[in-house]
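input
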Amino acid sequence: MSKLIHVNKEYAEWVKSLNQRFRQSQVKAAVKVNSEMLKFYWSLGKDIVAKDVVAKWGDKIFVTLSADLKDALPGVSGLSVRNLQYMRQMYNTFMPLLENTPQVVAQNERDITPQLVAQNALDTICSIPWGHIRYILDKKYDAHKSYFYVIKTLENNWSRNVLLNFLDTDLYERQGKSLTNFTTTLPKPQSDLAQQLTKDPYCFDFTQLKEKYDETELKDALVNNIQKLLLEMGNGFAYMGREYRMVVGETELFCDILFYNTKIHSYIICEIKTQPFEPSFLGQLSGYVSCANHVLKGEGDNPTIGLLICKNKDEVMARYALEGYNQPLGISEYELLKAFPENFKSSLPSIEDIENELKEK
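output
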């Protein structure tokens, strides 16, 4: 580094800003390159389908095409037989969505056409990395479900591993499915946004609890895995605390877990119950929500929301119980896909046992 950069603050700041601008340009260029590459993949997949290449040139056409493209484009990666098959699958998977995209034209938006909407959808699909698209294609979902995971990847900036995790938790079926009274207690569009933030059931698989666990152990496990809990809760959730203390008059109240959601600008009080739903649970939660609106809610915040997550629920009873409250409340279940038996840990060999066995061998 030059002497000037160490002695002149203005010059040093200028060099720093140039570095930042260059890095931003690099990122934009990488995104642009990825998008253009995927659009080429899309067009190649379209050609493969339109020309019906297997019927025309036989089962080995992908091997032949891969070799010929590699000869024609030396040094270009991504032209393997498997990738060509993925390109065909990409086109076949998403094309029904683009063909059936509804035309939504407002009076002052006469230039919006189905073709433009479809083009925007294709731009969105081509905005995520190819590796992510391959993971989605591996699941062989229909067009709408596949596109759902494309959108979620963009919204949440998911890595491949995070995407793969959510592909295995049926997020598409769970998203926005919580039983709520939001339509009667929140104005539009906030009610719709709040509904989409919910899930039913919530997947607490990451807690790795034993089969016999109590409420405290579940809450401990959730907070101890707070990063995974926030991923499961969804985009915009910020953790504010467990057993969060609110002082109302001369009374102290402690809600199980308090979140703040930056997308809807609302506090969200989450109560966890390890037993089946009971109507009395809503009374306690509604009281917490009302108090939070007076104690926590600021001038720029929307009304606080209460979310009850219980082991299971009678849908009819839960729906009827919600009708008695004017606070925005939701009821969801949770599931533990990996609840280990009590003797699970003791049945595993220790590290010492494994080392001794390897030495003997």
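quick obs: Residues 9-50 form the longest helix (42 residues).
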